[in-house]
Structures are given as structure tokens and as C-alpha cells.
Design goal:
Elements lengths: L12 E7 L5 E5 L4 E5 L21 E6 L5 E5 L4 E5 L8 E5 L22 E4 L5 E5 L8 E4 L4 E6 L5 E5 L7 H13 L5 H9 L9 E5 L18 E6 L5 E5 L7 E4 L9 H4 L8 E4 L14
Antiparallel strand pairs: 1-2, 2-3, 4-5, 5-6, 6-7, 8-9, 9-10, 11-12, 12-13, 14-15, 15-16, 16-17
Amino acid sequence: MTSGFTGGGLQGVGFGMAIDADDNVWATTYGGRSIVKFDNSGKPLSPPEGYNFNGKLGLMQGIIVTPSGDVWALGVSKNQLLYFPNGDPAKARIICEGQEVALQVVRRTVPPGHRSTGPIWVSNFISDWVTRFPASDPSKAETFKVGISPGGMAVDGQGNLWVTSHFGTRKLAWLTVARAALLAKRGDSPYSVLIHAMVAVRPGPDGGAVFVLRPDGKPVRPPVYGHGIVVPWAVAIDGNDHVWVSNFSNPPDSIAELRGYRTEACPLQYVSFWPCAPKARTISRGGFYPESCRLVR
């Protein structure tokens, strides 16, 4: 019988979870406004209120653990970036907060991508860019253009960054994003506007899409849309560098699989056409709303 983890300040998990080298589970909590930690048996390692920075945190969302053991997390309601050096809560600090900071972590932000010797990537819900900065110096932030309203991200074995875009390249989506940004600046919640717009999205050129950036931030290819991609939400890379994408809304096919750019992991008939060019297939015809998936390698 399988049961979930409880305690340690857990009140509604945010976007995804992360597992460290000791098989401990780290998660953000949306309702608890804190970070929580469990061992692999489900025993809470965080205090009953979680790691909440003395009540200073807002609604928490994305989280990663780097190969060196550092933990990075993001909050959406206060635009916060958190840092736990070597996963140590005693040394944890808020790196930045608010829309005026250099990183511009704007609402509903997700930071899944990292490399052992590479940078930290951050997506920004109300924008058309992703942010990259060295883990050693978050002040040296750069932005790179992707689709409208980026969300989940993952880095493949070639160092390419895969980014989900809730609205793709549809120009009319900027009306929704602009309205959401105005609400956010006034201190009101933008989520109702965004959610209603995402539920209305249909697959195809006017729908959501997946973007791919090289390690230097330049686009690898045109955006991938259709083939089970409607409002792409979370993304994960498997051991063959295949890309798995979940959708926010509930299309007939809830999860899409894309071939990546690892030649030896592609069917031979496709290698001569374009080594591992993204071709999609869809799986899981279920009546559910997949929100996040993360493969820890």
C-alpha cells in the first residue's frame, strides 16, 4: 500500500520536487509558504512549520538541487529567490525579492534546469524570456527570448534547454499577459486571468509550444507545437534524452513524448533525416490534470 508524505510543514506541494544525493526529498509548499524536507522513508526532516524564514516567504513554487548539493527555490507571490548552500537550512537566505531585482522573477516562476558546471535557469510566467545566471553570482543575470508565458524547463544531456510556453507565439496572448501583469503590479492576483486563458487554448500553431535553446542561449530549431502539446506545463528528460511534456489542461492525450538530439537514442530511420529531430507521440489518455513531472538522474 502506498501512502503520501505528511508533516514537516507540508501544505500543498508547488511545481515539482527535488531529490538530493542522500535521497532526501525537497519540496515547496504553496499553502504553507515554506520549504519542506523528508527522508526517503517519508520522515519529516523540516520543522512542523517547514523552513519559512520566520514567516517571510510567500507562495512557493519551483525547486531544484544541484549536483553540488545546493538547493534553489522560487516564490511566486513575492517574487523571491531562495538559496540553501549545500542544502543547509541554517545558512539559507533570500537572494532577492520583488520585481525591481535584477533577476525579475515575475510571478509563477519555475527553475528546473541546471548542469553540474553550468548556470541556473529561471522561467518567468508573465514574460517571453528565461533568465540565466551563474550559481556563484546571481547578480550576473542574462535573459533569453522564448515563447509567451514560459513554465517548466529541463536540460538534456547535450546541454540544450527545453522550455514549455503556455501560449507559444500567438500575438493575442499578449493581451492576457498584459492584463495579468497589470493585476500583479496592483497587488491583485493574476492567476484567474491566466488560468481561464490557458484552459481556452487549443492545439496547433496558435496553441502552446516547446522551445529549445542551445547552451549558449540561441534557438536550436523552431518551436514544437501540436502532437499532443496543448498548454505544455512541466517537462522532464529521460535517460535516452527523450523529452516528456505534461499539459496544464486536459487534452485527449495528456502527455507528449519528443525525441531529443541524442543520435544513438533515435530510431535509425530518423537519423539520416535530422539526427534526433523532435517528433512527438502522445500517451496516457486519462481524465486527469498532470501538473509536474521530474526525472532525477
